[in-house]
Design goal:
The chain has ten helices and 17 strands. By secondary structure, it is of the alpha+beta class. It has two domains: 206 residues, PmbA/TldD fold; 225 residues, no CATH class. The strands form two sheets. Strands 7, 8, 9, 10, 11, 12, 13, 14, 15, 16 and 17 form an eleven-stranded mixed sheet that branches. The radius of gyration is 23 Å and the shape is globular. The N and C termini lie far apart (49 Å).
């Protein structure tokens, strides 16, 4: 495995810490190897692999903090990285609150590494995908997308005695079927490649594409809407980014600012962050070496909390929730293992309950920065939206723009699906979003 061996990172970090007298020192590292198999128009056009590592050194002295980054654990480069961090710490302004690094704690026993993910060869994946290409071709559908597999490790070592190391794997398959200007998408995301049925994913994208052919225009307006899990995951990503982090919360820009304990959605909405949940891309500690735990953000419609790391917790006099990301992240701590609880309904039951309205498979170009205080977002439907009348799909519709307050929309959720699906959490490594389908009584489509 190409990720950093545990003994190497610990040995190298110990050497830096020993040399860094007068400083509290932390070394955090993310090393990984990735393999990518891309295809377009049912033709493979790229097979590539690369390995990289990001190593951060944080030095603290008298409430002054310096951070530097390198991509190697060579003794010389790591020493230079520490000296750069220490130099920054000597010259920056002291923080107004006490700063402390994490202390040793026990971590949950979590398995995030699966041999099937690391060992699958491009040839094996291409063989199965090629069969999907042939089946799609019989129906005149072309397939495009990518399979990305990663193996790596996260490590945190500090001068308080923390020595944390966690190997992991991940696999993400995305397939888009296209025909006559219509498209359909299917994705799969897992730690374990053996959980991903490549044939099923390609088949789903073909069926979705064929259903989306010959779309019609639909007048903008407020419609009952059934959002499938991928569409919901986009909204959850933006909710996490603009509202569930402590930095936005205390700056007053979050939709939860000043609203803890208040009703913000319907009673059937519960959203939480849980890095220990094996159904997500689980990891036992954050990038400060603090143990992960479940943090409830919205419970039965009531605002419950936001996430912290050690540094934001110290500045606001609370305890960390174990949500530190890499030291360079300007956004501060954010939920990286987001779960929205499902309900009791099946997919068929939700379509019947929709009666008359719109089914949305997925969104893209979502912008959650229109008015974060009001959770106002806009975006476009993509890869299939359908008009339903009397519980039956009548026809696909051309792409529509939505503009709505998502918390307000979540106050109008009538049903949530029993099944949930896992998606990548975009920019955050080793993170995920688990989302159900939801039926909303009134979602605003503006064009």
């Amino acid at each position: 495995m190409s990720n950093l061996p545990q003994e190497k990172i610990i040995k190298a970090a110990r050497a830096v810490i020993k040399a860094g007298k007068g400083f509290e020192t932390e070394v955090s590292a993310h090393a990984y190897s990735a393999r990518v198999l891309r295809f377009a128009g049912s033709v493979f056009h790229q097979g590539a692999s690369h390995s990289d590592s990001d190593v951060y050194v944080r030095a603290i002295s008298k409430r002054k903090v310096g951070v530097a980054m390198c991509n190697s654990l060579s003794a010389a480069l790591l020493k230079h990285c520490f000296e750069k961090a220490a130099g920054i710490a000597r010259h920056v302004k002291a923080e107004p609150f006490g700063l402390t690094l994490a202390r040793p704690r026990a971590y949950a026993d979590i398995n995030s590494y699966f041999k099937a993910t690391e060992r699958i060869s491009p040839r094996q994946a291409a063989s199965v995908l090629s069969k999907g290409f042939k089946k799609a071709a019989r129906l005149g559908v072309l397939l495009s997308g990518a399979l990305i597999t990663k193996s790596g490790a996260l490590s945190v070592v500090n001068s308080n005695g923390v020595e944390a190391h966690h190997p992991y794997t991940s696999a993400h398959l995305s397939v888009v079927g296209t025909k006559d200007g219509a498209s359909g998408i299917s994705t799969a995301f897992s730690k374990d490649m053996s959980d991903i049925d490549i044939s099923a994913v390609t088949g789903d994208s073909v069926r979705a594409c064929l259903l989306a052919r010959s779309p019609k225009d639909l007048r903008p307006g407020v419609y009952r809407a059934l959002l499938w899990p991928q569409a919901v995951s986009e909204l959850l990503y933006w909710l996490a980014y603009i509202g569930f982090g402590s930095k936005n919360f205390h700056e007053g820009t979050s939709f939860l600012s000043g609203r803890l304990g208040e009703k913000v959605t319907g009673d059937n909405v519960t959203i939480y962050d849980d890095g220990l949940n094996p159904c997500g891309m689980s990891v036992p500690f954050d990038m400060e070496g603090v143990p992960k735990k479940k943090t409830v953000l919205i419970e039965n419609g009531t605002a419950k909390g936001v996430v912290y790391d050690n540094f934001t917790a110290g500045s606001f006099g609370v305890k960390t929730t174990g949500n530190a990301s890499f030291p360079e992240d300007a956004e501060g701590p954010l939920p990286s293992h987001v779960f929205m609880e499902g309900g009791l309904a099946s997919a068929d039951e939700m379509v019947r309950a929709l009666d008359t309205g719109i089914i949305v498979k997925s969104f893209h170009y979502v912008n959650g920065l229109l008015s974060p205080r009001n959770s106002l977002m806009t975006g476009m439907t993509r890869h299939g939206a359908f008009y339903v009348k009397n519980g039956r799909v009548k026809y696909p519709v051309n792409p529509l723009r939505f503009t709505d307050s998502i918390l307000s929309a979540f106050s109008r959720i009538e049903l949530a699906s029993r099944e949930t699906k896992l998606f990548q959490n975009h920019d955050f490594p080793l993170s995920s979003i688990s989302a159900p389908a939801v039926l909303i009584d009134g979602f605003s489509f503006t064009g």
